[in-house]
Write a structure and sequence with these properties.
Length: about 140
Amino acid sequence: MLRLQVVFRYAFRELVRARHPKAVVPIRLGRTTIEEQIAAKVVGFVLLYLGLIVAGGVVLTGLGVDPVTGFSGAISALGNAGPALGDAGPTNNFLVFPRAGRAALMALMFFGRLEVFPTMLMLVASTRGIAQVRRRRRLTRSNFG
């Protein structure tokens, strides 16, 4: 709930700043002023979370699942919330999804359970390490070849 409050107050502040560009409008929660960097991180987290939901829902719908079941399954998996809506409701299970869809749901569950930012950082760090190894190999080949 705190993240949503920060996002709504950030959006309201940006609307005020669109009307009055030189205005200094702090983001407050009660008596506490939220720093700009923290507000930006919260907005980034919420956008990343929503982006993962949309991507998961589109993937599941693209695999032949109806949109209600696909998007609610993505929300359920990312939020680790239990049953979804539609065919994957409380009286059914996730076997209504095709195998590739269950793999996508598994990835969403992974992101949701381990938190979105640390998991993304883990993936980015591993790809950066691979890129550095490739760059070193190219340099050593060019020096000896």
